[in-house]
């Protein structure tokens, strides 16, 4: 009998509050794992490397927890979704499909290593490197076929140009590094994905391997950001502890503008440029994880009718947003507003937090009103909008200084004017712009 993932009413309501809780996040992660298993099943029945599939089955038999942790890796999810999409003809790339399929050997090798299975598996290099998910990357291996040998709890990658041991003392091995933080009894650890080829799934290019000084800068700022969240917004910190497994550093362009993003196929990670402050880091973590939660929920519960033509004003964008994009923005910025509310408790941030809280909650109020008037929400989508309204009304009732309210009103006026000007130009150019 097949068991289906469901979202009980109490969890749905909790997610509608903008939070959800650690247990709910764990259930969303379990549903994502099931999706990855289905994608893996597709590869297994599509004539892919049978030896790799057999090794995965044996590793799962010996140590299911080890294989589960591997499948929970966000970039394993990104690789699976991308490869299956390509196999079905739904995505194109200049890279031969065989190279994406060959990553199955590297995934199976990690499962074997984790479960204590000795084996030899075939893969292919990508730009001269082979990534073993959750472990690191063997570089300078040359271009072409590669062999991964797992024996006695060690892995070796043999490529056309070099053989690299997956060990810290091998100069060809770049281990996956992790940011670590502690505040009271709350401990957080996230991997820094700066080598895996499947990290390139954002609107900005991924950054290359960090030097030690750059990594230390990220570590220090992450520890400061975690202290802010754990101290002022512990429920947010608890969700991140359960759901966030890695970060993908993005290239900062010449403008210096901070950028961040999530990828629906990679639940548990997010891309971001180096945060300019601990506060920005903390808020970005919440913002992007809100998107991750809602995307995972959308895999289980349809909230928006597909193929809709409505377009809406959202103060955080200059383009007219489809209903699916609007609900993502409302949900993410509701979390941001709630985080700024929590940061009001940090004396050094009180003025900034009051100003940002007032601005963001005002923007969310306008975006949510547009969402509530949409005819493209499903019945469950309308229920979610009701929960979001209850949560936002509580935030709107929090007093802020008059100056902060004035800043929020001015921000909304400027955003609406910019939106109107931009979309007037779009209409003039002949592009459709239904509102």
Q: Any low-confidence stretches, pLDDT <50, length ≥5?
A: 427-435
Tally the helices: what do you get?
13
Rough outline: globular
The multimeric state of the shown protein is: single chain
- N→C terminal distance: 46 Å
Profile the largest sheet: 5 strands, mixed
User: Radius of gyration from the CA trace?
Assistant: 23 Å
Summarize the helices and strands and which ones pair or pack.
Blueprint lengths: L8 H8 L5 H23 L5 H13 L1 H8 L2 H14 L9 H19 L3 E6 L5 E3 L3 E3 L6 E7 L2 E5 L4 E3 L7 E3 L1 E7 L2 E7 L19 H21 L1 H10 L2 E4 L10 E2 L7 E4 L5 H21 L24 H21 L6 H23 L6 H18 L5 H27 L7
Parallel strand pairs: 9-10, 10-12
Antiparallel strand pairs: 1-4, 2-3, 3-7, 4-5, 5-6, 8-9, 11-12
Helix pairs in contact: 1-12, 2-5, 2-8, 3-4, 3-6, 4-6, 5-6, 7-8, 7-9, 9-10, 10-11, 10-12, 11-12, 11-13
What does this structure look like?
This is HEXXH motif-containing protein. InterPro entries: AKG_HExxH. It comes from Krasilnikovia cinnamomea. With 435 residues, the protein is an alpha+beta fold. The protein has 3 domains: 15-22 and 176-293, no CATH class; 46-174, no CATH class; 301-427. The chain has 13 helices and 12 strands. A 5-stranded mixed beta sheet has the order 8-9-10-12-11. Strands 1-4-5-6 form a 4-stranded antiparallel beta sheet. Strand 2 and strand 3 form a beta hairpin.
């Amino acid at each position: 009998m097949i068991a289906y993932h469901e979202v009980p009413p109490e969890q749905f309501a909790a997610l509608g509050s903008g939070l959800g809780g650690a247990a709910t996040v764990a259930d969303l992660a379990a549903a994502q794992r099931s999706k990855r298993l289905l994608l893996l099943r597709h590869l297994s029945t599509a004539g892919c490397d049978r030896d790799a599939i057999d090794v995965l089955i044996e590793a799962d038999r010996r140590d299911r927890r080890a294989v589960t942790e591997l499948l929970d890796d966000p970039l394993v999810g990104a690789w699976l979704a991308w490869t299956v999409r390509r196999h079905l003809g739904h995505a194109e790339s200049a890279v031969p499909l065989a190279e994406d399929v060959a990553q199955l050997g590297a995934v199976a090798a990690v499962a074997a290593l984790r479960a204590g299975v000795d084996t030899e598996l075939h893969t292919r290099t990508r730009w001269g490197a082979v990534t073993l998910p959750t472990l690191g990357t063997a570089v300078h291996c040359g271009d072409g076929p590669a062999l991964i040998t797992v024996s006695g709890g060690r892995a070796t990658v043999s490529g056309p140009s070099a053989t690299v041991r997956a060990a810290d003392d091998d100069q060809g091995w770049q281990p996956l590094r992790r940011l670590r933080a502690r505040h009271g009894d709350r401990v957080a650890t996230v991997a820094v994905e700066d080598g895996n080829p499947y990290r390139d799934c954002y609107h900005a290019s991924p950054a290359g391997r960090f030097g030690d000084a750059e990594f230390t800068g990220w570590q220090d700022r992450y520890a400061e950001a975690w202290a802010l969240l754990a101290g002022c917004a512990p429920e947010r910190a608890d969700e991140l502890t359960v759901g966030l497994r890695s970060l993908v550093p993005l290239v900062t362009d010449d403008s210096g503008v901070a950028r961040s993003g999530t990828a629906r196929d990679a639940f548990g990670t997010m891309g971001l440029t180096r945060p300019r402050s601990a506060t920005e880091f903390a808020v970005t973590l919440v913002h992007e994880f809100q998107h991750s939660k809602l995307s995972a929920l959308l895999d289980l519960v349809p909230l928006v009718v597909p193929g809709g033509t409505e377009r809406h004003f959202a103060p955080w964008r200059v383009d007219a947003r489809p209903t699916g994009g609007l609900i993502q923005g409302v949900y993410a910025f509701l979390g941001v507003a709630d985080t700024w509310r929590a940061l009001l408790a940090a004396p050094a941030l009180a003025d900034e937090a009051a100003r940002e809280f007032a601005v963001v909650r005002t923007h969310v109020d306008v975006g949510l009103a547009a969402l509530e008037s949409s005819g493209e929400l499903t019945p469950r989508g309308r229920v979610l909008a009701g929960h979001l309204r209850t949560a936002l009304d509580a935030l709107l009732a929090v007093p802020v200084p008059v100056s902060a309210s004035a800043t929020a009103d001015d921000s909304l006026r400027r955003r609406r004017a910019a939106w109107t000007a931009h979309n007037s130009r779009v209409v003039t150019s002949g592009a459709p712009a239904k509102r």
